[in-house]
Design a protein that fits this description.
The chain contains eleven helices and 14 strands. With 384 residues, the protein is an alpha/beta fold. The protein has two domains: 138 residues, Aspartate Aminotransferase, domain 1; 238 residues, Aspartate Aminotransferase, domain 2 (3-Layer(aba) Sandwich), CATH 3.40.640. Strand 5, helix 6 and strand 6 form a beta-alpha-beta unit. It starts with 7 loop residues before the first strand and ends with a helix. The mean pLDDT is 93.
Length: 384
């Protein structure tokens, strides 16, 4: 069996490795400056509060928001739940417009609320590239709605959405706009101030910060009812002792992405394209899914028709970490809801593999991974 160190990690959409500079900051606030940010009577609390203040500013600068608009959470799932549930508590019943290719954090939350009769879901149309039909979006928005939910970038096929255009439509019809930006922040520019976004969800572990920390940007003038009570922290919107090490790490990660994102994402895209071309040259029937002109730099979502993705995973899992993107529930694999919404053929969905690379990916890893995947395909073809 391979040790973990020998396995090439190509599942960056699931989680990123923590940047060592971020880990250093986290460790410092765990061991040296370990105070509670709400302890105002001594230096330890003051130092922790200062770290939180600095992190708010660093996050705000990356997404072009005001530091006062940032609320810390445990991650994007909590941010999304806070935005949706906190919003509908003051606006029921709700009509909510949603894209069918959203993350389950959005879809499951809305469907649970719909079962209780608290929300009516209006589904948007997506095509085979997971692009949203903006004409249809405008039409459903013109009928009025309580909330619009559209992600900035898709976590499976990597499609980037025209958030600025979507925000303008939402603004035109005076509809608050929740954007799950967990895959986008730190990878593509986001302008919270000018793009008509009302609520923006961020996840630390998608941008080289630790797991268990995230944020929700809430546009000035908007408010949410809390879904967690106890102490009235963070303007009464999200109670609980602040995760100061995680917050400091998220702030540092956002600062590093602000400085390094543009150059690093270009380099990542070059590596991704190299892998894609290498695979296409040796696997003639390979299909690349998603919008190839508007996708995340590190995303390569492929299908190999007539070869189940599980057969590929079984052959490479000791040497290469990639995923099917499908969800596993009760021990049975469910087809990806994203690929189903794109109405791809069963042939394509069953052979789908999600490859995610990032700033720590090397040229050598690209070459090795390409060989591993090509060899796996060839061996399976010999068996067929």
């Amino acid at each position: 069996m391979s040790t973990q160190e020998n396995i090439i990690y190509f599942d960056y959409h699931s989680t990123t490795p923590v940047d060592p500079r971020v880990a250093e900051k986290v460790m410092y606030y765990m061991t040296d400056t370990f105070g509670n940010a709400n302890s105002v009577d001594h230096y330890y609390g003051d130092a922790a509060a200062q770290a939180v203040k600095q992190a708010r500013q660093q996050i705000a600068e990356l997404i072009h928001a005001s530091a006062k608009e940032i609320i810390f959470t445990s991650g994007a799932t909590e941010s999304i739940n806070l935005a949706i549930q906190g919003y509908i508590q003051q606006n029921t019943p709700c009509k909510i417009i949603v894209s069918p290719v959203e993350h389950k954090a959005v879809l499951d939350t809305l469907q649970a609320l719909a079962k209780k009769g608290l929300v009516e879901i209006v589904w948007l149309k997506v095509n085979s590239l997971a692009q949203i039909d903006l004409e249809h979006l405008e039409k459903v928005c013109s009928d009025g709605a309580s909330l619009l939910c559209i992600m900035a970038a898709n976590n499976e096929v990597g499609t980037i959405y025209p958030i600025e255009k979507i925000g303008l439509i939402a603004k035109k019809y005076n509809i608050p706009f929740l954007c799950d930006a967990s895959q986008a922040v730190g990878k593509i520019p986001i302008n919270f101030l000018d793009w008509g976004i009302t609520y923006l969800a961020i996840s630390g572990h998608k941008l080289y910060a630790p797991k268990g920390i995230g944020a929700l940007a809430i546009k000035k003038g908007y408010h949410l009812q809390p879904i967690i009570y106890g102490g009235g922290h963070q303007q009464g919107i999200r109670s609980g002792t602040l995760n100061v090490p995680g917050i400091a790490g998220l702030g540092e990660a956002c600062e590093l992405r602000r400085l390094e994102m543009e150059a690093e994402e270009k380099a990542i895209a070059i590596l991704r394209d190299k892998l894609q071309h290498s695979l296409q040259a040796q696997i003639p029937d390979l299909v690349v899914n998603g919008d190839l002109n508007n996708r995340l730099s590190g995303n390569l979502h492929i299908s190999i028709p007539r070869i189940p993705n599980s057969a590929i995973i079984a052959r490479v899992r000791q040497q290469l970490a990639i995923s099917t993107g499908a969800s596993c529930s009760s021990g049975t694999m469910a087809p990806s809801h994203v690929l189903q919404a794109m109405q791809l053929s069963e042939n394509i969905t069953e052979g789908a593999l999600r490859i995610g690379i990032g700033k720590f990916t090397t040229n050598q890893e690209i070459e090795t991974a390409s060989s591993l995947l090509i060899n796996a395909v060839n061996k399976i073809h010999q068996l067929i």
